[in-house]
Amino acid sequence: MTSAASTAEIGVIGGSGFYSFLDDVTEITVKTPYGAPSDSLFVGELAGRRVAFLPRHGRSHHLPPHRINYRANLWALRSLGVRQVLGPCAVGGLREEYGPGTLLIPDQLVDRTKTRTQTFFDGEPLPDGTVPEVVHLTFADPYCPVGRTVALAAARGRAWEPVDGGTMVVIEGPRFSTRAESRWHAAQGWSVVGMTGHPEAVLARELGLCYTSMSLVTDLDAGAETGEGVTHEDVLRVFGENVARLREVLFDAVAALPRNEKRDCLCTHAHDGWDLGIELP
Ligand SMILES: [Zn+2]
Q1: SS3 breakdown of the chain: % helix, strand, coil, rounded to 5?
Q2: What is the value of pTM for the model shown?
Q3: Residue 275: inside a domain, yes or no?
Q4: Cβ pair 193, 169 in contact under 8 A
Q5: CA nearest neighbour of 215 among 71, 75, 108
Q6: Could you tell me if residue 29 is inside a domain?
Q7: Which of 127, 152, 218, 266 holds its CA 20 to 30 A away from the CA of 162?
Q8: Catalytic site includes residue 252
Q9: Residues 71, 32: contact at Cβ < 8 Å?
Q10: Which residues have beta carbons under 5 A from ligand 1 (an ion)?
Q11: Which range of residues forms the domain containing residue 33?
């Protein structure tokens, strides 16, 4: 676990479409105090950076959003040395102008999930006997400002004008929204709806990691369109149509992220003033 081949500085939580063609990828199984991550981590080199890819839903896409072990995923990435995470994901657009193929880099988040463990600081002892303290982290700005800037520039560099900012509402799923729910989300002024952005973002913050969401709109959500409603086929088709250019933007962003030791964003100050009670990996 300590050889160079098994370390990484940047993590990407996304499907195999992002790493399957990279040369020289090492598959690493990581154990965590919270159980197993969604899959092995696939570590390789990209633009001179060590990157760990983790298929969020498992390589055979067998994990629905509410069954993903988000704590194990983030912990596993950090244990390899990752300090900056990019989270590409598929979302529904809540405004007519955010149609399929829109890339939105959100700056805010609303949690409407119901059953997910969303903290490492729950008072439960770790297997080594240490007990996390009660910790209340600042989460006013849920995404890394540096990562957002880098992602926006990477998209523009590929002539894909992104939406700069917006609110992602994260629902429990796995079903899509009703029309009434979707109209309500839109009426709140929220921009896109997803199923995995939370607790991924907050768990990254709890580990002092930089986290940037790169949200690809695959459909107009139920309340924003007049047809039959969202289908999974629509989501897969639009994601497939856009995965190549999303990969280009993602890779350019990886290349442009600061070195971990040069980070000086709010994420690096997440633990200021707190005794965590546990050792982070
Ligand atoms: Zn940051």
Answers
A1: 30, 20, 50
A2: 0.95
A3: no
A4: yes
A5: 108
A6: yes
A7: 266
A8: no
A9: yes
A10: 144, 210, 265, 267
A11: 4-269
